[in-house]
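Field reference: sequence -> structure
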Amino acid sequence: MLRSSLAVPAALAALLALFPAASFAGPFRFTTIDIGQGDGAVVVAPSGCAALLDGGPTGAGAKIKSYLRSIGVTQVDFAILSHFHADHLGGLDEVEQGADGIPIGTVYDRGGSYSSTAYSQYASQFAGRRQTAALGQVIDLCGEVQLRVVAVNANGLSTTDENARSLVVKISWGELDALVGGDLTGDTGKDVESLIEDSVGLVELYKVHHHGSRYSSNAGFVNAILPRVSFVSVGWDNPYGHPTAEAMARIAGTGSAIWQTEDPGTQQELGDIELTSDDGLTFTVSQGGSWASYSSHPPADSEPPGAPSDLGATAVSTGEIDLGWTASADNVGVTGYRVYRSTDGGNFSLVGTSSTTGLADVGLSASTTYWYFVTAVDAAGNESAASDIASATTFASPGQIILNEVLANEPGSSTAGELVEAVNVGGSPVNISGWTIRVSGVTRHTFASGTTLGPRQAIAVFGSASGIPPGTPGAIGSSTGSLALVNSGATVSVRNPAGTTISSVTYGTSLTSRDGVSMNRNPDASPSGSWVLHDTISALPSSPATDVNGGAF
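Structure field:
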């Protein structure tokens, strides 16, 4: 009786009873039978259940039966017919015929009909046992091997091309997968291969579409499935040029080993190609006296790594925080880490990756707190849960004193209204006690002990306290009672107690052309800003100890 759960007609059950099942405890087996120009393959589960995939051309039935009996198979659970061309179906009915016939249970095909003698003989032989395969359907072979339909009738692509309508199955046992698809097409206008490449995934065995035609096995498809081995069923005397150099180059380019039943180049029949596996992880391919061993693709990994731990964050400068953590573990192996950062402790975004257990996060803002967590990623792209959260605050930027505004052409006639403005554009306070303002090399002001400029703070030194406009913040009179900023031009500098010039400006008459209008950096408070007349960048003629518009820095 059949060892699948499929129901069969009573007449067929009686026929099957004439052929008792063999006692089997063998390997998984996939064999491409050498039947010349055509396709015929056998899948055998370890318990001995068997399925046929196509039946070769008319006359191939005898060779298929001979092979089946040689491995102890006396009944076939089901057959899958890829499409209705004679070189794939011609010998299928012959398998059941004659005194040595081997009964077949259900036959799955694409449905519908076809106009040919070979099709008529097939349809007559299997009347009542044909089933139309459906996309996504899983056909089970004795609970051990699964055959999933990944293409049938071109998966909705509008075409009348019989090859494009091929029924394609992915066969799976353990970690071993094979793809069998008749004469499926991959060329422009009827490219079904590209429609299925994502759903197929990696396979160990690719039974090469259309005997190695140039119109199949397109580059994108074979690089998506990356077969370990590829079997080509071909006749040495075929008139089509199969297998073509183009298709073979595309397949070989994936690193796949290529085996073929016959060789047109040497006009040799090389024989059946047989794949066997005892564990689903490794397999052997043999043909005649030749054989080779292969390993399956690594199993699909859906298990994420463990979360990294002990995350630490340390500020090392105004713009850098260094991170370190304890490595996480994974069933296959961690390939890297992803670092996420937040500036408010709640909205994290990816800011970097690392292949080690540390990262230097650079380009940060001074005096700013940042929060972090880290995840681990494995080779399959699985991402772990988040580590613990760590935070650090960057250092304040060092103080930087610059001259930012000079008023040499005082308003009116009193030189008491002349001014020099200094601004701390850094991120930390600067003690300017004992610093001096010099005009053309002569000290005109010395800052008093205890004078400190905080970040973004300004101080304006006027020629005399009497020249300070009422309400002006951060303004003082010159310690010498005069700045002596002549209109014809001079060099103004600010120096520290060691005599080092911290900032300076040399001006000419173009910046002293209007009474009461100062010269100011543009952009305002920029260490590299150029000097311009104040009223060209603001509505104000000057802005002592404030920004160019009169507000706080």
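Note: Residues 1-24 have pLDDT under 50 and may be disordered.
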